[in-house]
Amino acid sequence: MRADVTLPEITFKEFQKLMLKRKRSVDDLVDIFRGKIEDSRGFFDRAMTCQWRNPKTGRFEDRSQVVVPYRSVIEFYLKEVHYLGDSKKRPMKISDPVKMGIPTRELIEVF
Fold first, then answer.
1. How many CB atoms lie within 10 A of CB 7?
2. Are 41 and 26 a contacting pair, CB within 8 Å?
3. How far apart are CA 53 and CA 72, in angstroms?
4. pLDDT digits (tens, 9 = 90+) for 54-73
5. pLDDT at site 1
């Protein structure tokens, strides 16, 4: 039996901020969650814009403090946070000077 794990509350604003850092578009998210949540396009449009259009008034309302209701989306968010943190820790590799196309000191002295 699986123990219930309490997931953190993630707001639309937090979700939007991370997805922009990770360069994830609404279309990317719809493809990832196709079949996992209902009306994924509508949900991710609201989450990424932090707005909802009220059909009665026709006005857009701020939804940046709304909490993401789907467990699968919260788990995805946590994986993306972990990946972003790991990518910042990874050391940068210095390219081989031979492959860079920049003349080395020996070649400069020849000319």
1. 12
2. yes
3. 25
4. 889 989 899 999 999 999 99
5. 44
The mean predicted confidence, pLDDT, of the chain is: 82
Do 12 and 47 touch, CB atoms closer than 8 A? yes
Helix (H, G, I), strand (E, B) or coil at 86: helix
Cα–Cα distance measured from residue 37 to residue 22, given in angstroms and rounded to the nearest whole number: 21
Distances (CA, A) of 4 to 1, 7, 69, 71, 74: 9, 9, 16, 12, 15
pLDDT single digits (tens) 25-43: 999 999 999 999 999 999 9
- Residues 58-97 as b/e (b if ≥16 CB within 10 A, e otherwise) read eeeeeeeeeebebeebbebbeebbeeeeeeeeeeeeeeee
Q: How far is the C-alpha of 22 from the C-alpha of 67, rounded, in Å?
A: 20
Sequence spans of domains, the chain: 12-110
Is the distance from CB of 48 to CB of 100 less than 8 angstroms?
Answer: no
Tokens of 90: 């990874």
